[in-house]
UniProtKB/TrEMBL annotation:
Pfam families given in the database record: Ribonuclease
Start-end of Basic and acidic residues biased regions: 31-41
Keywords: Hydrolase, Nuclease
Segments for region (Disordered): 1-43, 86-117
GO molecular function: hydrolase activity; RNA binding; RNA endonuclease activity
Protein's name according to its UniProt entry: Uncharacterized protein
Length: 117
């Protein structure tokens, strides 16, 4: 999936025209469930999208490896995901990942795809 050749956070243009609740300008941050993102490391497939000035409403998207890149793009397009923060007691949001779902890990966050594969 994407390599660490771009710096984060950076502008998110919503080329896929996802139904985001945040208004532009948008910014994307890597979402790495197991540890904080480190510059020049692989950012993985998941991103947190927020408004550039108001980051109080995070939305989660992911690169879908089963979908070919859009014309002129390097990576597969983004799709919407559901973000559910893990609880401090480890119960809420701690369901096991569905088979073949690399985004459904527990840790800092649990992602659940909004569509089934």
């Amino acid at each position: 999936m994407p390599s660490g050749n771009r710096s984060f956070p950076h502008y998110f243009g919503n080329r896929e025209r996802l139904p985001l609740n945040n208004e532009p300008p948008l910014i994307e941050h890597p979402l790495t469930p197991d540890k904080p993102y480190e510059r020049d490391s692989n950012p993985g497939s998941a991103r947190i999208i927020t408004n550039w000035w108001d980051r109080s409403t995070p939305e989660v998207v992911y690169h879908d490896p089963l979908t070919p890149p859009l014309p002129g793009a390097t990576y597969p397009p983004f799709k919407m995901a559901n973000y559910r923060p893990a609880s401090r007691d480890g119960v809420e949001g701690s369901e096991a990942a569905a088979p073949n779902d690399e985004l459904g890990r527990t840790g800092l966050a649990t992602l659940r795809r909004s569509t089934s594969l």
